[in-house]
Amino acid sequence: xxxxxxxxxxxxxxxxxxxxxxxxxxxxxxxxxxxxxxxxxxxxxxxxxxxxxxxxxxxxxxxxxxxxxxxxxxxxxxxxxxxxxxxxxxxxxxxxxxxxxxxxxxxxxxxxxxxxxxxxxxxxxxxxxxxxxxxxxxxxxxxxxxxxxxxxxxxxxxxxxxxxxxxxxxxxxxxxxxxxxxxxxxxxxxxxxxxxxxxxxxxxxxxxxxxxxxxxxxxxxxxxxxxxxxxxxxxxxxxxxxxxxxxxxxxxxxxxxxxxxxxxxxxxxxxxxxxxxxxxxxxxxxxxxxxxxxxxxxxxxxxxxxxxxxxxxxxxxxxxxxxxxxxxxxxxxxxxxxxxxxxxxxxxxxxxxxxxxxxxxxxxxxxx
Length: 368
Known about the structure:
Elements: H1 3-8, H2 13-24, E1 38-39, E2 44-45, H3 50-67, H4 70-87, E3 99-100, E4 103-104, E5 109-110, H5 111-128, H6 131-148, E6 157-159, E7 164-165, H7 181-194, H8 198-213, H9 224-241, H10 248-268, E8 272-274, H11 275-291, H12 298-309, E9 327-329, E10 332-333, E11 336-337, H13 339-357
Antiparallel strand pairs: 1-2, 1-11, 3-4, 5-6, 6-7, 8-9, 9-10
Helix pairs in contact: 2-13, 3-4, 3-5, 4-5, 5-6, 5-7, 6-7, 7-8, 7-9, 9-10, 9-11, 10-11, 11-12, 11-13, 12-13
């Protein structure tokens, strides 16, 4: 047995299978960039997504921490270099939205995506010590504040090259909202990495806006499928709230938000359900319990873990095997094998396994 095989047997099979999917499925392309998803029905990757590549960097680093397998760190480094060298545009000081055919499109740039990319770069920097990743993240974090924060709101989208705020739209992702707090976590990590307290102030501004807007975010519309998508986004808010969860107000909002999300999830799931909502909710529960914001309901948490695990795919095709399905409409699985869904579900289930074993150690920097 090779040393790599020995390492792989030391982690749970569901983690090893997800890790193998990330490494061998082709979801990470030769450039280092990662596709938004794999379409199993037409056997084709979607285009590379800069946001999903950011998530993938964090995922590869997490898998390396769990397993010690060098391949994960190599994949994380390739993805981080792709973001730092090909996606980051020094002349614009931002990360444009998508990357296709070797050319980064001009409009637009998203606040949310930028924050996810920064967290990936910082995870790669902590794992490798490569200063390029920290310096790109520092520049990106400062430009996020300059480009998106305005007196009236944190704009979700700017148009390039002049960085005008894009008109707000009908969907939640095209409007300011509490979900933006997840990406604001990058500012907290930058403050710790650089010692520059100005980044703390940026997070506090995002926290203030998120707390003011979060109550109106759910359900947000009458269409149940759209509400399910909003649950996914609201879970981003819950994740972004975790660094402040020991504050009295934030702890109360965190507890009530988890309860409200779970109620809507159970109500809508027979019609349409996303695997990532189960995973995000379970992770939030574990962290909230550790913070003392709410006791852990083990029965409900066990149900969420069981539901999330159902989405891992068993298939002879390595482009599918071990990944997690994006969701189901009624009883029919959707054909998207999704990197973010895979990362969230795999991590949530590993955290739950460790909680049951008495070895769960919460670390927000590892939260993908």
